[in-house]
Structures are given as C-alpha cells and as structure tokens.
Amino acid sequence: MKNFELSVLDLAPVKQEKTIHDTFQDSLSLANYVENLNYKRFWLAEHHNMASIASSATSVLIGFIANGTKRIRVGSGGIMLPNHSSLVIAEQFGTLESLFPGRIDLGLGRAPGTDGLTAQALGRNPAIINEQFPRQILELQRYFSKENSESLVRAIPGEGLDIPLYILGSSTDSAWLAAELGLPYAFAGHFAPEQMEMAFNIYREHFEPSKQLDAPYIMACVNGIAAETSEEAHWLSTTLFQAFINIVRNDRKPFAPPVEDMDEIWSPMEKSAVLQKLRYSFIGSQPEIEEKLKNFQEKFNVDELIINSHIYDHQKRLDSYRIFREAANSLFKA
C-alpha cells in the first residue's frame, strides 16, 4: 500500500437560509483551512441550473479561490468541455495561470453537468460529444503549446504556459481516453461508483506515456464525513443523504441541515438507490476513517484521494477535513 495525496472537491454548496455570497465565503475559508493542512489541491466543478450548487462560473470562482490562497493548487474538477469553445477555455485558464503561476489545474469532463434542457441552452450537440471531447482536448494542448505561435488562431494568454490537464470520468469511456493521451485520470466515485474498479484497471493497463506524464496517475473522488464520534458523523451525513434524495426526486433545492431519522424522509427503494450511489462514502470517527482509508487504498492503490464533504455546518466541515488529514497521517506513519 503506497501513500497518497489528499485533495478537496468543493461544489460550492448552497445551504438553506444562506446566500450564495455566504457559499463563496465558506469556500474560500475552506480553501485556506485545507491549505494549512497541506492538502494538495482544491477543485471546483461546473454545474448548471441547480439551486444547491453555485460553481456554474467555474473559472471565475477558481480565480477568487486562488487569489485568496497562497500555495495550494486550484482548478476545475471539472470544466465540462463540450459546453464551451476550446479557445475560450484556453484563454480563461491561460489568464488564471498568468495570474497564479504554477498553481492552476484544468480538469476536463464530457458530461453536461446539468439536465437535458439546460444542456441545450448551453449549445451542446449530444450527437457529436464522443467525437468532440477528444478533439477539444487536442485543441487545448495545441493552444497551450509554444508551437502554436505560428497559427492564425492563438490563445493569448495561454500560449506556451504549462497548464496540466486531467481527464475526469464516471464510466470506462474516459479511462480509455486518459490512457491513450497519457493524462492523469480522476474518477467520480462520490456519485458513480459502479465502474470505478474497471476504469482504473483499463487506465493502468493501456496507459501510454506522454509529455505531461510518464506513468499512470490515478485520482479517486469520494464522499468524506468525519467527526469526533461515529454517532455525530452519521448524523452529519444525513445532509448528504438528503441531497441525493433530492437528485432522485429531481428536486434541486439548497442543502438541508441534518435530521434525526432519514427513514422519515426516504422510502426503502430510495434508500437502497442512494446507498448504492454512495458506497464510497467514508463516514465515522478518526479511527473508523483511518480503517476505511486503509481498506480503500489496499483495494485501489490510488495516487490521490479527493474528498467531497457535504456537511451543513461550516465549522463541522472544516473539522471533517482536519480529521481526514490526521487519519491519513496516522495511516502513513503506521
């Protein structure tokens, strides 16, 4: 079992009785806190038309977080590339990298990050996504290259900058692509765990070295809710469970505070569906988290674990990331 890095996925969660301004201030507070805990990176994810998630203008929010921190890498987990022109994303991230040299990541996904109607409003063409996404990644690499200075279309800023690309996926499709292009691969185990093991195997077995990466680099995103006691952690986790029930019911309202009894909210069928989707959720006290980290790493042997934490109380959320860091440190020492 090898050591692994710890990082953060922040969806800029909007909470009941809070404003979006409050959400952004909490995100910055979290970024500062985990920076001091030596987390490796802080990623924000593009979503649209969701009252519970405020990270739709992902590049703008990355700039806000990067400006308020000093060392931690900040980036997208991810930009849903077929929603955008490759040139616009190259310019946006070229601007970010020019403002915050050596700290910007560009994680890329092909999903819309929303519902079908909103995807249409974003100008996506679902008939060509599987062809468009790989082509757009190659376009980004060209725009960022020094060689593109002779092209009639250039990304200014962006050209000649070292902006690492990451491929995100929730199925095996992107595993094949990340392996072919020789790019780091991050899997969305926090909401789509079914194909994670298969995707990692495909990526490792078919990886081709590239200019960016000479060996596979695997990142797994999981849900993490840690507290001083197991009972408190499971109580806090009811915010996460309610969020997923809202997804099942297509109810996109802001995140709710914890409840005492989830059985008063979900049906047995909904409970089964939610727990299946959340199978890679690490919930518990520090000793429990340490054991779960150990078991997960023995199975998957990842290079980096990205923690997504849906906790209603901001201080409890900070505490959870501290407990994860302490659990990982203890595990490494062992």
TrEMBL record:
InterPro entries listed in its UniProt record: Bact_Lucif_Oxidored, CmoO-like, Luciferase-like_dom, Luciferase-like_sf
Pfam families: Bac_luciferase
Gene Ontology MF, one: oxidoreductase activity, acting on paired donors, with incorporation or reduction of molecular oxygen
Domain spans labelled Luciferase-like: 19-256
Domain of life the protein comes from: Bacteria
One GO cellular component, as annotated: cytosol
Family: To bacterial alkanal monooxygenase alpha and beta chains.
NCBIfam families the record matches: oxido_grp_1 (TIGR03558)
Protein name (Swiss-Prot/TrEMBL): Luciferase-like monooxygenase
Organism this protein belongs to: Chryseobacterium defluvii
